[in-house]
Write a structure and sequence with these properties.
Lysozyme, 307 residues, 3-stranded antiparallel beta sheet, two-stranded antiparallel ribbon, mainly alpha, Membrane-bound Lytic Murein Transglycosylase D, Chain A, 12 helices, single chain
């Protein structure tokens, strides 16, 4: 349901860094966005197969370069699983040897599901399932010992990713966002990439691309385009500009709690509508919070309350 354009991640060379520096180099928006995008399906898989969500996410980040590896982009293969005993579509890529065969999936969900099945049914991984679900260190070392990867510091990398991004917090949750988990099932190989969905202020939003309309977004996401236009306080036939925020649920009355006692200072070119869109607030409540009448023309430098 949402995809934002971001810089490519360079993974080549990072394997040569000391573990601590390597992990710090991974702290960026692209990695956090990957976590936001896939954490719910990782939790879903944990509840179904008893594999710690932290391990699934860390392996996905490491193996796919946060979704930017050739295998992830061209084959939806997020875990580097090869073709052994595989009868589905394949792709060939150099790895430990030249021209090795890797599995191709219809979408990212299939990759996550197959990764779980691969571990659950693999004889060499059986001992991992006797570990406590919160023992991500044991899982990381067990995966390396069982031969999941040849890199000698594979376990250390997984552990550092988990700790750096606090992925262990997902190993004890009972509930997950089914909307986000279902979204992963819709990402297909080939064709126009789906928009990246982001969560903010108890809502979901996407960033409009060139040529987007409320109708095209509604068709992709499975929500009435009339509703989406209404959620954004717009006419259903309005044109969307590239880079606009498009909310997918009804906006809130105020910004999140962390914005209490904070102000937005109006910049050149902003309007009450654009500011309300930025924070996921309905326009009329932004006026009300600030004691302004709907015909007030904001000025550069005005300080606006957000909750």
């Amino acid at each position: 349901m949402m995809k934002r354009s971001l810089r490519a991640v360079v993974v080549i060379g990072l394997f040569c860094l000391p573990i601590g520096l390597w992990a710090q180099a991974k702290w960026n928006a692209r990695y956090q966005q990957y976590i936001n995008q896939y954490k719910d399906v990782a939790i879903e898989q944990m509840q179904k197969y008893k594999i710690p969500a932290s391990i699934t996410l860390a392996q996905g980040l490491l193996e796919s370069g946060a979704g930017n590896s050739t295998l992830a982009v061209k084959a939806n293969n997020h875990f580097g699983i090869k073709c052994h005993h595989w009868t589905g579509p394949t792709i060939y890529k150099d790895d430990d040897a030249r021209g090795e065969c890797f599995r191709v999936y219809k979408n990212a969900f299939e990759s996550y599901e197959d990764h779980s099945v691969f571990l659950v049914t693999g004889q060499r991984y059986r001992g991992l399932f006797s570990l406590k679900p919160t023992d991500y260190r044991g899982w990381a070392r067990g995966l390396k010992a069982a031969g999941y990867a040849t890199n000698p510091v594979y376990a250390d990398k997984l552990i550092e990713i988990i700790q750096l991004y606090k992925l262990y917090q997902y190993d004890t949750v009972r509930h997950y966002d089914k909307f986000m988990a279902e979204r992963v099932k819709e990402q297909s190989v080939g064709g126009q990439p789906l928009h990246l969905i982001t969560i903010f202020n108890k809502n979901y939003y996407i960033i409009a691309r060139r040529g987007d309309t409320f109708r095209s977004i509604g068709k992709e996401i499975g929500i009435s385009y009339r509703k989406i236009a209404r959620y954004n306080e717009r006419d259903k036939n309005d044109r969307l500009n590239e880079g606009e925020i498009v909310w997918l649920k009804k906006k809130q009355r105020r910004a999140p709690k962390e914005y209490k006692n904070r102000y937005h200072y109006v910049k050149n070119g902003e309007s009450m509508y654009s500011i309300a869109q930025t924070y996921g607030i309905r326009v009329k409540y932004l006026y009300q919070m600030n004691g302004l009448s709907p015909d007030y023309n904001i000025r550069v430098g005005d300080a606006l309350k957000l909750r």
